[in-house]
Sequence to fold (470 residues):
Amino acid sequence: MDLTALLLSRLQFAFTVSFHIIFPSFTIGLAAWLTVLEALHLATGRPTYRLVFEFWLKIFGIAFGLGVVSGIVMAFQFGTNWSELSRMSGPIQGPLLSYETFTAFFLEASFFGILLFGRSRVPPWFYLFSTGMVALGTTLSAFWIMANNSWMQVPVGYAFENGAFVPNDWFKILFSPVLWVRFPHMLLASYITGAFCVAATGAWYLLRGEFHAEAQIMLRMGLYLAAVLVPVQLFFGHLTGDYVHNYQPAKFAAIEGRWHDEQPASEVLIAIPDAAAETNHYAISIPILGSLIGSLSFDSKEVGLTDFPPQDRPPVAIPFFAFRIMVGCGLAMLLLAWAGSYLSLANRIGQNRLLLTATFYSFPLPFIATLTGWFTAEVGRQPWTVYGVLRTADAMTPFLTARAATVSLVVFCVLYSLIFAFGVFYIHRLLRAGPVGHLVLPPAAATPNRPMSVVGEAIPSHLRHVPAGE
Fold:
């Protein structure tokens, strides 16, 4: 086995996953919010809701496309870089990924076409139904991906036969308590991401003195939603920590920066972990709090990393710092959402430029929290691909060379960077243009047999016969 190829393959998958997750974490929440907007438009008849819907639908379409492209390419790596993982876990992971295609991707793709082109061709109630189906499709997609990843984190419902993991209880796999903690945690992260992006956009327009009515809708709805969901997310984050504590004690010790057994255990707020010396430098700790967080006890014994052989320990620095960044982002979002919601209810948020500015600059926070959460989960799982039963080194394609891994990594980085650059550029153009446009139906003269009739209707009559070039 080529250890350099292993490292490069891990870097490649980390890069592609980090790139890809940005878009689903945004579109899942945005699809749900679009459904709410369309329902409000039907219920109230306010054209502003329709205008905001059409504006965000364009942005959703770009982000959805980028997510699909980056997600499809990601799956190729299971065959090129991780063929042993595919061979051994294919009987379980294959069906789960197929279910995502059948129940989620087809649903999204079918009804998304109606969202883009069917407004004037279907009844209003069916258009709302289509919007809900797109939101349901994005949610189902997240479910199947989390089901697959949760099985890798805590494998259940399988038997090992003929060198492969074979499912023997799909009920345990699909109703694992780990899955039903991690799936809501990811779903809430997506809703919060959408909420803060929408609120930040509304704050930006208010700071610029543009699109006041639409900006107020974005700002208020985004902050209200975040104010409700962030506390719930913190609760599910605690439940996620419980599963790590119970099923992945080495990861939990790495997150806590705990090297030796402690009873009662202190909580390390910040430090510089030193893996070589098996200690922390410049640590700031709170006594007893570690036992309370880990076991809801004031005197529980919490295990340290030295209880595990060095080859079974995860890298400490990445999960240790990533977890603290994630929690810090969550607390900052909670403070901002509550303060903004309070001022909004008091009708004072439009005059508070400090809070508007803070809201605008908050849009990276949910993305950073999502990425660092995944870094904590995935790096903390090392050295296992399927926790406790399949090491990452044994999951790699055995004949993969460092040269081949280097070429594919460079190609992925270049292509993904170009795609991301063009996508962000176009979304930025849409944001600068703002929610403008005339909400009208196509002219009656615009028929499939006479598509250029739209142009004719739009050109003033005294210019329709001007010779070309004049």
Summary: The chain has 15 helices and six strands. Confidence is low (pLDDT under 50) at residues 438-470.
